[in-house]
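#struct-help
A.M.: can someone run this one for me? Single chain, 694 residues.
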Amino acid sequence: MKQLYITLIFFLGIGLSIALAAPPDVVQYKIDVRLDTSSQMLYGKEILTWHNLSNDRVKDIYLHLYWNAFKNEESAYLSESAESQGRSNHSGHLDEIEDAGWIRLKQVTLSDGRSLKEAMQYVTPDLPRRPGDQTVLRIDLPEVVQPGGSVRLHIDFEAKIPKAIARAGYYNNNYFISQWFPKPGVYQAGKGWNCHAYHYFSEFFADFADFDVRITVPQDFVVGASGVNTERVVNDTAGTVTYRYQQNHIHDFAWTAGQRFIKKERLFNPDSLISEDEYRHYASLFNLPLDSVRLTPVKLILLIRPEHENQIERHFQATEQSVKYLGLWFGRYPYPTLTVVDPPYRTGSSGMEYPTLVTAATRPIIAEEGWIPDGVIAHEFAHNYWYGMAANNEFEEAWLDEGITTYSEDKVMQAMHGKTKMIVTFGPFPISRYFDQIRYSSWERARSSALHIVETDPVVTPSWQFYDIYSYFLNVYERTALNLFTLERLLGKDTMLRVLRTFQSRYRYRHPTTQDFIGIVNEVSGRDMRWFFDEFFYGDRLFDYGVGSLVSHKIVPPIGVFDSDSGMVVVSRDSLEGRTEPDSLTRYKTIVRVRRYGQARPGGDVRIKLLVAFADSTTETRYWDGRKRWQEFRFETAARAVYAQVDPDTLFLLDANLANNSYRTETKSAGINRWAGKFLFWLQNLLTIITLIS
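D.P.: on it. Structure tokens below:
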């Protein structure tokens, strides 16, 4: 029995061919894969066509075989995991040999049938030779691939599915299959193949491709995958069903299969979610024609677990809002489908991104608003813009994906919910509704987690060269987001949006680098912001400015012996006693010393602002380039100073110590009293709840 899926009418306008301005795909894949649930194996046939779009003569091809990272404990992934001293979900050890995963190329031939088995060699391009690491395979080609030419490989492979690890594998009869097929590295003109080993701290990098994949699974399995499902073939004799998925202009392909998924579909209809006023606003902001900012329909596919069935609407709402805002800000989502997967229990695949497919994360009982599942969906869908469509090198410059994605997620969550509500749980039960007044900005969360890691590593560090996994995560996620929020304040929100929109449109499908991003920032802002990236992305120095001292006193005539035309004049303290002056003539002298406590400094046209406030409600403002260790500012005014503050507009969110930014001549306790009262109020509520439950 064969059922050919006819795509919906709206697909005709979008189709499988997208983005006319996109460069040609470098790779074509035709893959047939069969899932054997009895042996936890994949059996696949792959026709891989690689096009040489460079001017180089290429004599070999490098392939990623990612699942060999789970083959033995000498792989780069497992050995680096062990060296991290077990501070993660992966101990670096295979508990059982059945837990291992691997991929083996049984046969590799050219189109004319010539075998390449003898020309294959495992290599570790960025490591000392590790015989146990087989995640990169080099194949020497019998003929050079000329500029503009291509090579076609016919590959028979089998792969042992690992027990859930690193967002891939199986648990019970549930499967999440990612990084599962032989995949070329990226050939960089004049440099050669960029094809790193699979490291513990790293993710991925691949060229854009045209995928045509057939997946055969047992008939009772529900499947979700990257791309558009164009065909379904049932084999009653074998008890299997084969799904065909197709999509071009993507650089990876992932799929999931399980027996207990509930599958729901919905059309993202921009006409019902976006007003004409919103379109006009963004067309004006980006100086674009109105039609170029309009979004197109997207078929949303949700695979959700039965125990989370009551959250279907919540998942769709978060997905729709993410597609809406990210599309308005960074350009329309160009693919006809988006699949959101509530991943199978204990497959370890929650919160992960793949082209046109993302995994969410939830729990049986969730808060009315919050990061689960809303923020997870926003984060993973945002990846489809940065990891997915811009497609930077995640091995070498992870921040260009993870950091910008974290910033984008935060912006979506602000648009959806405003300030973030503190997530408070009592066991599995969310009780955030009782703490509704305790909210915080995204940058406050980033500050709390990122500042202590600044001096460990620069943000721009190859993933496997970070000090440890904490330095990796905090630098490329939270510290980068904090840096970008600071950049937003220095440039302005509208300019920051234009920067990201321009970066996305300029480098969509083109593998941008940090230097490309800096170029866009300078171009769009009209300012030289290289110093910002030198300090906060390439540097590892703390930024910390503060008020060192504040002295303010009434000006009185000096005491002593002074020369005059009539001779020496003696002014004593006794002679000044009882002397009064009108208030209008009273003057005060104020001396403020501002200090640079950290090593990092501003540059370009950016200055450190100093605000001094006086008792008569007047203020004075000064600016300092911040280059020296300290600077003194003097004021003569009609009233004494009451406080001084550096960076009063809080432009520098990455300032390591905001507490030293201000200095008062008199202590005020109203603020701390107010917060202490709130804290005690909520503590009383919490204790009351605990008493009632117990």
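A.M.: thanks! The first strand starts at residue 2 and ends at 4.
D.P.: also worth noting: The chain has 15 helices and 36 strands.
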